[in-house]
Amino acid sequence: MASSNTNEHYLTADSFRYLRQWIPALRTSKGKIGMRLDDGLLNRLLQPRRWSADQPTVFESNRVLNPPPSTRALNLMRSGLERRLPKLANVPFVESWGGMIDVMPDVVPVMDAIDALPGAFLATGFSGHGFGIGPGAGRVMADMVRGMPLGHDLSRFRLTRFSDGSPMVPGPGL
Q: 35: buried, middle or exposed (CB in 10 Å: 19+, 13-18, 0-12)?
């Protein structure tokens, strides 16, 4: 079972740093995104943004984003089960898991070469759609890495849209 209508954002320093870019997406999702203030908020707000090559990074100390399941999501699943399958209403949840979904401010993934780091490529922000479009995106990225013709216009997926003044308009349009 899954809760399709529970979105919780873990506040970090970047939540405030990039708030302006996220405002259009937040407006279209009004009332659908909750803020997670627990689970190490202070540590997330105070994480260093730069470090020397001989220092351990936040990525070494926290290799997997595996948060505890949301109590709100579990309660919503329980009430949905009670409404839709009342005979299963009292069956206990034996296990639960909470995961992270990456999403960009315009709700469009990034699939691009990183100009500042020759040889580096980025494919991220697929939201929950990564499961469905992952194979095609993987093929396109493999062609990009190999320098092959892509056969697709990926300008909508460029990383620079976050720094070139492009408006952050949630959805597939340009």
A: exposed
